[in-house]
């Protein structure tokens, strides 16, 4: 079957790179990118349609026009910005998802990808090797909306047969598009600043370990999950994905191996520290490995090397 894919929230950090990978896989004509903002560039044969996921009428006419076989819903407000605008974060993260799920049921669009996050875990979840199933008491509005979204996804799968698939993304590290408003963003800013000024002041404390993943791995995982046979999938809420866990000290050490003059300092009292403290330090991803043969490629050293090479080449 020929796939037609709509990516909602396609101009963001993950959407930009996922769109490139999906265009390579299915051809540009099959991928419709959409966002409330126009993209900075649009290649020949690439299709973009402006749409707001909170506007159900607009969304439905987009789906009716292109008759997608798959939808990727990436429009969301991340953890740090969410704490500044909790009502807006809840509205976008929940109602955007609800709109897509409802229209998908109405128009019989079966296959949907929607990302969750490590933010679904909270202060009483195990901190190390956090398992798929455990106490979950997120205390950021972002985490609360993602956990509610996971329950909603599983509900729509069970009740309406939607083939919805999801990953609990760790912090995603990339050089092509900058992230916006996340707690894990320091692990990207550090590379840009290391090359630009040779220094970085980190807003998280030196020993704050968090699960992260290089963009190549995150995109590969997402497409691998979407390609997996439905009968192999035992999780319809969202899959844990481990990635690589490190502290600011550890990433700074890795950067210093390549840029020996790099200097790291720390700023105390940033509100993102409170969010980071409530999240796992590392994740266990047995279900992803078993159900769809997930394997990580980039460890911290490989990621740091690739980031710096690409930023130097493109900077
Ligand atoms: C954030 O920091 O908010 C995101 C996430 C871990 O979901 N990168």
TrEMBL record:
PANTHER family (UniProt xref): L-THREONINE 3-DEHYDROGENASE, L-THREONINE 3-DEHYDROGENASE, MITOCHONDRIAL
Q: Which GO terms describe its biological process?
A: L-threonine catabolic process
Q: Where is the NAD-dependent epimerase/dehydratase domain?
A: 5-234
Q: Name one Pfam family in it.
A: Epimerase
Fetch the SUPFAM superfamilies from UniProt: NAD(P)-binding Rossmann-fold domains
Source species: Sphingobacterium alkalisoli
GO molecular function of the protein, one example?
L-threonine 3-dehydrogenase activity
Q: Member of which family?
A: Belongs to the NAD(P)-dependent epimerase/dehydratase family.
Name it. NAD-dependent epimerase/dehydratase family protein
Database matches in InterPro entries:
Epimerase_deHydtase, NAD(P)-bd_dom_sf, NAD(P)_epim/dehydratase
């Amino acid at each position: 079957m020929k796939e037609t894919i709509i990516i909602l929230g396609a101009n963001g950090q993950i959407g930009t790179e996922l769109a490139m990978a999906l265009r390579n896989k299915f051809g540009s004509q099959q991928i419709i990118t959409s966002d409330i903002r126009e993209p900075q560039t649009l290649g020949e044969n690439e299709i973009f349609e402006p749409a707001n996921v909170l506007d159900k009428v607009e969304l439905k006419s987009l789906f009716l026009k292109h008759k997608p076989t798959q939808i990727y819903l990436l429009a969301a407000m991340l953890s740090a910005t969410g704490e500044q605008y909790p009502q807006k974060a809840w509205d976008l993260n929940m109602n955007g998802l609800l709109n897509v799920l409802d229209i998908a049921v109405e128009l019989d669009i079966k296959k949907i990808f929607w990302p969750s996050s490590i933010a679904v875990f909270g202060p009483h979840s195990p901190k190390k090797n956090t398992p798929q199933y455990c106490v979950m008491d997120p205390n950021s509005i972002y985490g609360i909306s993602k956990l509610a979204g996971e329950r909603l996804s599983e509900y729509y799968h069970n009740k309406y047969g939607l083939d919805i698939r999801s990953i609990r993304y760790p912090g995603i590290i990339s050089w092509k598009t900058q992230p916006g408003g996340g707690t894990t963003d320091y692990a990207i800013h550090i590379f840009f600043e290391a090359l630009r000024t040779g220094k970085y002041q980190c807003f998280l404390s030196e020993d704050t370990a968090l699960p992260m993943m290089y963009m190549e791995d995150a995109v590969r995982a997402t497409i691998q999950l979407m390609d997996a046979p439905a009968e192999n999938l035992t999780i319809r809420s969202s899959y844990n994905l481990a990635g690589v866990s490190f502290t600011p000290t550890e990433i700074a050490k890795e950067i210093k191996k390549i840029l020996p003059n790099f200097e790291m300092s720390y700023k105390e009292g940033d509100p993102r520290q409170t969010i980071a403290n409530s999240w796992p330090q590392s994740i266990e991803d047995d279900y992803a490995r078993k159900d769809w043969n997930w394997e990580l490629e980039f460890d911290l050293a490989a990621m740091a090397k690739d980031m710096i090479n690409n930023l130097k080449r493109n900077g």
